[in-house]
Write a structure and sequence with these properties.
Elements: H1 12-22, H2 31-50, H3 64-84, E1 101-105, H4 114-117, E2 123-127, H5 139-151, H6 155-164, H7 172-186
Helix pairs in contact: 3-7
Bound molecules: zinc ion (ZN).
Amino acid sequence: MIKKGFISRTPTRIVRKGIMARKPFKRDLSVEKRKSRKRVKRGKKTALWASYGLTVPKYIRYSGRKGIYWYLFSKMIRKRDYQEHEGLCMTCQKYVEKGSDQCGHLFPARDCGFNLLFHPQNNHLQHSKCNNPRFTPSAGIHNAINIEKRYGIGTIDKLAAIKLIKGKEWSQDQYDIYIKELSPTMNTDV
Ligand SMILES: [Zn+2]
């Protein structure tokens, strides 16, 4: 007679080890192979950025053309706020020194949907600290107040309504078109 619970008591760790022993988990990939794959990937990235006359920056938010578009869009937003709004941070309304300037979202990027991701009224110049919830957890409230001051009462309502409309992300071809539209004006430092 098999004791109750006998099967469930079989240590799963050992079972998995057994499977692993029979089917090695990609252990054949040598360090050199992995390094060369990385180099190819990096080469492709450099080539893609170069095809738009750009060098790969230190930090890239998104991969592929989306990353290039965000890089240019973020520059455009910061340039707009330096030129038209005296370089004031949307959160604290103080001047943003070059080097700590970032383009930040009111409705956070990870949750705002595609229609707001690159919306000019959802993106503004901010201090890097004001754009970081760890340092400025209440930034959203201040942003909302200041955005309404800038564009008028009802702006947040309008943006919230846009958020509810499900937006379809651009195709690679569309990204290409929009990158080419933005890049001639944004190819200089902010
Ligand atoms: Zn600030």
